[in-house]
Specification:
The chain is mainly alpha-helical and about 150 residues long. About 70% of the residues lie in helices and about 0% in strands. It has a domain at about 1-105.
Length: about 150
């Protein structure tokens, strides 16, 4: 019986050593593989960041181009209006030509806000005379009715 017990002890010790050896080998293989995985993930993150920066740059360029087009459109509108007003003043009878010219003068004398300046509040309503009730008055447009009850 002593021989069987010693055989089992030797077999257990040998199995334990073989298990440690296989575990150490597997751990060393996994460690090298995880470093490769980490490097590939770092490269993917850098590629995603570069793509995001490129997207942000394209959005910025798009809106800058849109702003330039809007400014050009505004300038074209002014020049077309000026052309029509001068043509109307030359070709039409006095009233229409004078009215368009007057509107052009009023437009040219308006103070346009610089970009970035806050616009004044537009919570007013035009009146024909100072004594008239404005459109923002509570009773504007309501008829007063005195019903006998």
């Amino acid at each position: 019986m002593d021989q069987a017990l010693s055989f089992i002890a030797y077999a257990a010790a040998a199995s334990l050593l073989v298990g440690f050896g296989v575990g150490w080998w597997a751990a060393s293989q996994r460690k090298d593989n995880s470093a490769d995985i980490i490097e590939s993930l770092k490269k993917e993150v850098e590629a995603a960041k570069a793509a995001h920066r490129s997207y942000e740059q394209s959005v910025t360029e798009h809106f800058a181009g849109t702003a330039q087009l809007l400014h050009r459109m505004q300038d074209d509108y002014r020049s077309i209006y000026s052309h029509i007003a001068s043509g109307a003043q030359t070709l039409c009878d006095g009233d229409l030509g004078d009215q368009l010219a007057l509107n052009e003068q009023q437009r040219s004398h308006q103070n346009f806000l610089e970009p970035g300046e806050p616009a004044p509040p537009r919570d007013y309503a035009p009146k024909k005379s100072p004594d008239e009730r404005g459109q923002l008055a509570e009773d504007f447009g309501l008829e007063k009715s005195y019903a006998d009850s």
